[in-house]
Specification:
There is one protein chain. It is globular and about 50 Å long. The chain has one domain. By secondary structure, it is mainly α. The protein is 76% helix and 0% strand. Helix 7 runs parallel beside helix 12, helix 8 runs antiparallel to helix 10 and helix 11 runs antiparallel to helix 12.
Amino acid sequence: MARLDQPLRLALSFLTIIPSGVKEEIGEASFAKSVKYFPVIGFAIGLLLAGLYAVISTRLEGLASSAIVITALIIVTRALHLDGLADTFDGIFGGKDKEQKLAIMKDSRIGSFGVVSIMAVIGLKILFLSSISSVYKLGAIITFPVLGRWSACYAVSTQPYARKSKGLGSLFLGANKIDLLIASIIAFVIAAIFLGYAAILAAVAALVFAIAYSRFIKSEIGGMTGDTLGALIELTELAVFFVLAFI
């Protein structure tokens, strides 16, 4: 593939289990440039999940089909964001100060807060998805990964890195406001196409949650990390499902 599309392939390999053929040396700038493609990768994930749902919903309904869709999401994303969710909850709610919270988040072991957060998010996603009207269900399945990954674009474009030493998350935090604008246009256009007027509610839910979450995390540890970005994606997806379940 041409070198120009390296950031897109990097986003694909980072956010999914799908191999992208990135073999050449990757410069730090490519990580930041890949951020604007996050909603595009979310769209690819959404289409895959929607196709799966369209097939299994002919035989299974309600919680069963929703559970399969969410399980497929976990597999496709290598449970990467769930791992970040668990580490974030363990650190934020288990540490007494910034240094201790960051140390706990870096620990590979999972604690009680992490276990509960994973169980709660997976369970609530299944319940909310099964509660969404059939009019919006396919659109919701396509759109929620898009808005979830858009929220990460917002955070890396507006928030500082929390740790003194560089980590993988710090590479993506080099994204700028232009990258965020491009990602925002892509995300909202996709949402509008597949959700119609409901896209406004879904987009507002994602935006409000991303802003509130980013401010909360900054107040706790001074900025974002790779783990808090993963948690943001998971929780934004949940917020989008929550809003769409009420329509």
